[in-house]
Each structure stands twice: as C-alpha cells, then as structure tokens.
Amino acid sequence: TQTLNTAGTVAWATYFAINQLWFPFSTNVTMFFLGAATLAYTLSDKKKFARGVVAILIIAPATSFMLVKYPAAGGWIGMIYNLLAGLPWLIRVIRRKKVSGISERGMFFAYGAMLSVLSYGLIIHSWPLIIGCATGLIQQSIIATYYYRHRHHD
Questions:
Q1: What is the DSSP code (8-state) at residue 101?
Q2: C or N: which end of the chain has fewer Cβ atoms within 10 Å?
Q3: Rounded CA gap, 117 and 133, in Å?
Q4: Using an 8 Å Cβ cutoff, are 128 and 75 in contact?
Q5: Does the pLDDT value for residue 154 go beyond 70?
Q6: DSSP code of 70?
Q7: Per-position b or e across 139-151, b if 16+ CB within 10 A of its CB
Q8: In 3D, which of 44, 151, 55, 49 has the Cα closest to residue 99?
Q9: Strand ranges inside 26-110, DSSP E
Q10: Chain centroid, CA 15 distance in Å
C-alpha cells in the first residue's frame, strides 16, 4: 500500500507539473518523500524495504515516462494507483474483520484530505481527481464502518 501510494505521488506530481499546477505539484513531491520515509520507518524487514524501494524506482519512472508521452492520462494513472493502494486494507478489513492498526485520527485526516482534494478537483473540473476522491471516500467509509463495528473497546 505504502509503495503504491508513494509511486502514485509521482504520477500525480507529473500530472500537476504538466498542467502547471504548482501547489499540488509541490504537495505531491513532499508526500513522495514522506511516503518513502514512512516506508523506511514501518518496514523493519530490510528485504521488504529494499523491494519497496525497487518497486518505487521502477514504477515511478515508468509512470512518469507514460505521463510525458500521454499527458492526458496522468490523473487517471494516479487515480488507479491510489485505488489499488487502498485495496489491501479494504480487503483485509472485510475478509478478516481486523481493524487493528487503523487509527481513528488517521481516518479523520484521510477524510479531510480527500474532501479537500475533491473540492479542488471540482473547482478545476478534473475528473480524475473527482472520481479518485469519490472512490477513496467510499473505500474509507467501508473501512470506517468495519472499524467502528469491530474495534475492541478498551
């Protein structure tokens, strides 16, 4: 998930650079470095970390090449990465009804971020952002439903 999210920020950054939208570009560049740092911190297993870095080093440049060659596809590629990145958590939560490791505060920040980006997408009429945020909100709502239903009350 973290690897795809981090690679997805490269797709979004390239998309925003092509469209000269510098504020979201800089946000995604920042998120790339935060994602890589988070990946390094959370993966104490050096083999998994190395595989994640290799995946980013392959996915990110390949994605950027596709975006330079097909600039109109940029937002859609970023949206697909974000959708794929959220699926492992969603599947884990639905199949196993396991909500450990999910932060209630993190869910609220995710909602806030998605609603902010959705608003921005509506303002600039960007269908990839609108659809990506809508699917993200649906995924997050399903996870939140399971979280509140299956969390352990301490």
A1: T
A2: C
A3: 7
A4: yes
A5: no
A6: S
A7: bbeebbebbeeee
A8: 151
A9: none
A10: 15
Q: How many residues belong to the chain?
A: 154
User: How sure is the predictor about 17, in pLDDT bands with cuts at 50, 70 and 90?
Assistant: confident
41-52 pLDDT, tens per residue?
Answer: 776 677 777 777
C-alpha span between 153 and 151 (Å, rounded): 6
Band of the pLDDT at 153, cuts 50, 70, 90? low
Helix 104-124 and helix 127-150: axis angle, to 10°? 160
Closest by CA position to 99, among listed 137, 149, 140, 138: 149
Convert the pLDDT of each residue in 54-72 to its tens digit: 877 787 778 778 877 887 7
Instruction: Look up the pTM and report it.
Output: 0.64
Percent of the chain surpassing pLDDT 70: 96
Q: Which phi and psi (to 5°) does residue 100 adopt? A: -65, 145
